[in-house]
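Annotated sample (chain length 126).
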Amino acid sequence: MQKKLKDARAEIEAVLKKHDIAGFVSLHAPGFGEVFYTMWPSYSVLVGDYPSIRIKSKAVDYGGDVVRQREDQANTASMAHHLGVSLSQFGMQFLDLSTALSQALGAEHVDQGFEPEPSKMNPGVH
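Output written by the structure step:
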C-alpha cells in the first residue's frame, strides 16, 4: 500500500511540474497516508523549506526586470495565501468530519508520528 502512495505521489508531482503549478496533496490508503506540497513553481521567490525557507528576489536575479520581479513576488504571496486559506478551511471541515465519524463508529486512532519527506521538486533542499 505504501508503494501505491509513493507511485501516486510521483505521478502527481510530475503533473505539478509539467504544468508549473504549486499544490498541497494529502493521499490515503488503508494503513498509510502521504502528504506533500510544492511551493516552487518557476514564479515562486521561495527557496528552501521549513524551518529555513527564505525569499530570493533581488534585482540581479531578474536582470533588472522590475516588472517580472514584482509579478513573481505578487504571485508567490497569492500562492501562499491561497494554500493557507484553503487548507485552513478544508482542514477544519475534515477535523469536524473525523470527530463525528470517530464518535459514531467508535473508531480509535493511534498517532504513529509523521516522517516528512521533502518534495523532489524543491530546488533549495537538495
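Annotation: Helices lie at 2-19, 66-105.
Annotation: The chain has a mean pLDDT of 89.
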